[in-house]
Each structure stands twice: as structure tokens, then as C-alpha cells.
Amino acid sequence: MSALGKLREVYGIRRIAVSEHERTIRVEYDATRLSAPAIGKLLRSSGIAIAEEVPLIPTPGRQAPPP
After folding, report:
1. Other C-beta atoms within 10 Å of 42: how many?
2. pTM, whole model, 2 decimals?
3. Is the dihedral of CA 27, 41, 24, 20 positive or negative?
4. Strand pairing partners for 19?
5. If you write DSSP's letter for every residue of 8-21 in order, what string do you get?
6. What is the pLDDT of residues 45-64, one digit of tens each?
7. Phi, psi for residue 22 in degrees, rounded to 5
8. Are 7 and 13 in contact (CB under 8 A)?
């Protein structure tokens, strides 16, 4: 958990929300400063394995994952 605390100090990361129940980490970031691959790299370097990336806004023609 302390590794996530260090991520909060990265310029461009706005918010990190952890849900142990859903087994998810939601990272809100400034897309003008960081990219999704950069966020993934930061999470992996913190020791967090990424199983899949779930977008907040589903893309057209693609169903959202079941709750």
C-alpha cells in the first residue's frame, strides 16, 4: 500500500481509489501529462499486477463488463 502512496506524488495523477471488494484500482490522471501505458508502467513498478484495463466509459459496440 505504501507503493500506491508514492504514486500520488507523481505529477499528473489526480486520484487513486482502491476497492478491495472489487479487486480494482482506479487511477484518475491528467491525460495531457500521462498516458494509459505510463500509468500501467507505474503500477507494475509498484508491484501491482494488471490483469486487464477497464475503461470508465464503454466504447460503442462493446458491452461493459458485468458488475
Report:
1. 20
2. 0.71
3. negative
4. 24
5. TTSTTEEEEEEETT
6. 888 888 888 777 766 765 65
7. -85, -10
8. yes
For 30, the grid coordinates are 491528467
**Residue 15 identity (one-letter amino acid):** R
pLDDT of residue 63: 60
Give the per-residue pLDDT at 65: 58
Give the pLDDT band (50/70/90) at residue 13: very high
If you search the block for the grid coordinates 494509459, which residue do you land on? 36
* Helix boundaries (H) for 1-67: 2-7, 36-45
Residue 1 has pLDDT above 60, yes or no: no
d(CA 26, CA 20): 11
| Cβ atoms of residues 38 and 52 within 8 Å | no
